Amino acid sequence: MLQSNGFDRARFFDELQRPLTDLPGIVAPPGIEIEPWEDSHREPARLVSNSAFADHWGSTLRSADAWETALKAPGRRLDLSFVATEGQEVVGYSLNGFYADDEAVTGRKDGWIESLGTLRSHRGRGIASSLIVASLHAFQAAGLNSSMLGVDTENPSGAYGIYQRLGFEPLNRMILLSRTIREGPE
User: Fold this and answer.
1) Which end of the chain has fewer CB atoms at under 10 Å, N or C?
2) At residue 21, what are phi and psi to the nearest 5 degrees?
3) Residue 151 belongs to what domain range?
4) How far apart are CA 50 and CA 115, in angstroms?
5) For the domain that residue 131 is a member of, what is the CATH number?
6) 140 and 18 in contact (C-beta within 8 Å)?
C-alpha cells in the first residue's frame, strides 16, 4: 500500500540480541583504557559521538543541550556505561540503558547498548569491541540476562560485523520508508 503511494524502502534497521552467557574477556587494545562513565566524560563523549556519526545516514550533530537530554533519558544507565581513553583523550564511548518493564513482554532482562561510537581515527583497533564486552560484563553483574542493540544494516563503520562476531543475532527488523514530497527549490 505504501509503495503504491510513492513510498520507497530507504533503510533497514535490525535489533540484535545476545544472551549474557559465555562472555569473552575484556581486553583493551594497546594504549587504550576502558573506564566506567564519569560526569567528566559528558562533553568529550558528545564530541566523539558527533565525529563518529558524521558519516551516518540521517545523523545530525547533537548540541550540548540535546546530549544532556539523551544522557537523562528514561532508562539511561550511566552506571553501566563506559568510555575508551587514550591518555587523557576520550576516543570512544558506550551509552547503555535498561528498561525494567520490558521483561513482562520479552521474558528477558535486556541491557541495551544504545549508542556506541569510536573516533574514525581510532577505528579498526578493537575499541568498539572492548566497549561492548565491558558493557556485557556490566549487564551480567547487574543481574541482567541479555543484551540488545539497534543497528542500521548499512552502517558505514562495519558495526554490524563487529556485533555478529561478538555473538549478537538478529531478532527484529524495521524498514524505514521514505517519500520525496518535492525536489529542489520551489
Assistant:
1) C
2) -125, 160
3) 3-178
4) 12
5) 3.40.630.30
6) no
For residue 53, the model assigns a pLDDT of 67
Burial 18-40 (b: 16+ CB within 10 A, else e): bebeebeebebbeebebeebeee
Instruction: Report pLDDT digits (tens) over 89-137.
Output: 999 999 999 999 999 999 999 999 999 999 999 999 999 999 999 999 9
- Residue 185, in any domain of the structure: no
How many CB atoms lie under 10 A from the CB of residue 52? 24
Residues 6 or more apart whose CB falls under 8 angstroms from that of 25 comprise: 133
Percent of the chain with pLDDT over 70: 90
90, part of any domain: yes
**8 Å CB contact between 46 and 64:** yes
Q: Grid coordinates representing 173?
A: 527488523
pLDDT, average across residues 54-79: 85
Burial 59-83 (b: 16+ CB within 10 A, else e): eeebeeeebeeebeeeebbbebbbb
Helix (H, G, I), strand (E, B) or coil at 76: strand
Residue 184 included in any domain: no
- Nearest Cα neighbor of 16 from 131, 109, 153 is 153
Q: In the numeric block, which cell numbers belong to residue 168?
A: 549478537
Count up the domains in the chain and report the number. 1
Asked if the structure places residue 47 within a domain, the reply is yes
